[in-house]
Design a protein that fits this description.
single chain, mainly beta, OB fold (Dihydrolipoamide Acetyltransferase, E2P), 1 helix
């Protein structure tokens, strides 16, 4: 039995970058920051942040483009993928990304004070700003080489 699943709740670090694949399907790339708070040996409260690169396709990418901005709180569920490539200047480049499968939006950035409760759960269970929206997740496979960034 195998399992590759990531569940993260954090804040968007930059507005999602949206591009189209050659097939016309949308892809969104965004950063997500998560915090960890603990006490050190001296009993002092210490807060650290981790930054995660996330990639979403299809309907979730479209929802991110339309409704999500920097500072927004979001729940992301997906799988962890590792990529490597040969750099033009020599050597290897590496990336660790969360391939987003489901999202749930939380509190918006502090400047708006509004709470967004729309939800995207995946095929057949999506709830979004309009009930007529259908999820495209899982319709076809995405070749990692088609991602334009």
């Amino acid at each position: 039995m195998n399992l590759n699943k990531a569940h993260l709740i954090g804040r968007i670090t930059r507005d999602p970058e949206i591009k189209a694949l050659p097939s016309g399907k949308q892809v969104a790339k965004f950063g997500l920051a998560t915090n960890h708070i603990y006490k050190n040996k001296a009993g002092e409260k210490v807060e650290t942040a981790q930054f995660h690169n996330c990639v979403a396709f299809g309907r979730i990418a479209e929802i991110l483009e339309q409704y999500v901005k920097k500072g927004q709180e979001i729940y992301v569920e997906g799988r962890i993928e590792y990529r490597s490539w040969d750099k033009k200047e020599g050597g290897k480049g590496y990336a660790t990304e969360i391939m987003v499968e489901n999202i749930q939006m939380g509190a918006r950035a502090k400047d708006t004070g509004k709470v967004e409760s729309e939800r995207s759960e995946g095929p057949g269970e999506e709830t979004s700003p309009t009930d007529a929206k259908k999820s495209l997740i899982g319709e076809d496979e995405i070749d990692i080489e088609d991602i334009p960034f």
